[in-house]
Amino acid sequence: MDKPTGFLESEFERVIAARGVASADQNVVPISEPLRAQATLRERERRFRELLDALPAAIYTTDAAGRLTYYNEAAAELWGHRPKLGSSEWCGSWKLFWPDGTPLPHDACPMAVALKENRIVRGQEAACERPDGTRVPFIPYPTPLHDESGKLIGAVNMLVDITERKRAEEQQALLVRELHHRVRNTLATVQAIMGSTARTAETIEDFKTALIGRIAALAKTHLLLTDEEHAVAFADVLHNELDAFDDGSDGRITLSGPEVFLSSQLAVSLGMAVHELTTNAARFGALSVVGGKVDVTWRMTIEATCRTLDFDWVESGGPVVSPPERQGFGARLLEFVLPGQIQAKATIDYLAEGVRMHCAVPLPAETKA
Does the predicted TM-score (pTM) go above 0.70? Predict the structure, then answer.
């Protein structure tokens, strides 16, 4: 290889020195320490970025003024868009909110606080709103970065998506509320069973025997609602709730319909609905007085490949009924929860002669009927 002369010669020497290539006279030109340090630094930065890109957690960095200098793929996914580096400030989120839904200005977000006050910020939660309107709750971990002299040069932030944790917390809160409500309803049902049994029993022994049997029937209902291993007959769901109130008088409880089997999900949801209807009837309706009656009829309708369970709950012989002043848990369960859980449609009529409810429940193709 011909060796250049003059300016080109010196430039040639610089290039081959940087590459560690032998010179024309075959003497190895050593790489200078500054160049070696720069190459090492670039390699470390490359590996560090590869590491950050591979992490599942959302991570981004800013300069000391809060301008975004880097973000990984997880951050772009959490934000739902790709903010512009060098101009977007503090956080790449489209919009920010506090956990209670209050808007959170970008210049007051935890990352902005960490940079403005030059301190680590922990123990806060926030939510980012994506351009499509969806919100993602997260926990930020903003940490200032300093050079060797201690000067603030930027910050790094990790955003931990806590969507699943929030869902679990909401589900736990719902279960606790349902547990409290069910305990109250169970105690009210037991009280109603005791009153009904006392009115019809002629001796203490008759009262004891009837009460034990009815409490056992109530316990079977709770067992049914927690057993999700096999299909359950709709008639069993009704019997397990209503048998406790069948005092042997003619027509107090009437159940009529074909054999229909429910999946565990349908059985649990409908079991809760029947439980609410039974509890309300025992506290305020037909089952709260002697002579009150409950008639439940159901049928299967088949159109093409669609199957629907239609059933009617009719109360009579009880106290005069008037629409409630406020909607209770049972009504909300029937009108709002069931449609969301099993796509059922329920309507309740508060007639003077007794409550009437109609419910249409879509059945999956594999449901045995």
Answer: no
Q: Is 304 exposed, middle or buried (0-12, 13-18, 19+ CB in 10 A)?
A: exposed
Dump pLDDT digits (tens) for 144-181. Answer: 999 999 999 999 999 999 998 888 888 788 778 877 87
Over the Cα atoms of the chain, what is R_g? Answer: 36
pLDDT bin (cut points 50, 70, 90) of residue 6 is: very low
CB under 8 A, 24+ apart: contacts of 88-93: 89/62, 89/65, 90/62, 90/66, 90/115, 91/60, 91/128, 91/157, 92/60, 92/68, 93/128, 93/129
For 106-150, the pLDDT digits (tens) are 999 999 999 999 999 999 999 999 999 999 999 999 999 999 999
Mean pLDDT along residues 183-206? 74
In this prediction, residue 16 carries a pLDDT of 45
The secondary structure element, H or E, covering residue 144 is strand 143-146
**Under DSSP, is residue 231 helix (H, G, I), strand (E, B) or coil?**
coil
Contact yes or no for 360/308 (Cβ under 8 A): yes
**Distance, CA of 324 to CA of 45 (rounded, Å):** 68
Token pair recorded at residue 91: 């956080």
DSSP letter for each residue of 87-100: TSBS---SEEE-TT
In this structure, CATH architecture of domain 166-363: 2-Layer Sandwich (3.30)
What pLDDT score does 273 carry?
A: 80
Pairing of strands 261-262, 232-233: antiparallel
**DSSP of 7-57, one letter per residue?**
HHHHHHHHHHHHHT-B-TTSPBPPPPHHHHHHHHHHHHHHHHHHHHHH-SS
CA-CA distance, 173 to 212, in Å (whole number)?
A: 33
Q: Do domains 53-161 and 166-363 have the same CATH topology?
A: no
The CATH number of the structural domain formed by 53-161 is: 3.30.450.20
Domain range list for the chain: 53-161, 166-363
